[in-house]
Design goal:
The chain has 52 residues and is an all-beta fold. The protein is built from no helices and 3 strands. Helices cover 0% and strands 40% of the residues. A 3-stranded antiparallel beta sheet has the order 1-2-3, with no helix packed on it.
Length: 52
Amino acid sequence: MPQDRRLQPHDGDLVQGLFLVSHEIDGTAEWQIRDGRLFVTPADARYRYLDT
């Protein structure tokens, strides 16, 4: 998935959120959606307990 991609629904409202995504090979990543853009970074160690 592209690192910076516009996510905008048909009604014009921008999607916003924070998601932790786990992959069995790549590990856990943090997806931050701000101002309709997706920013993907490795998850911070403080979230490691969620990936069990």
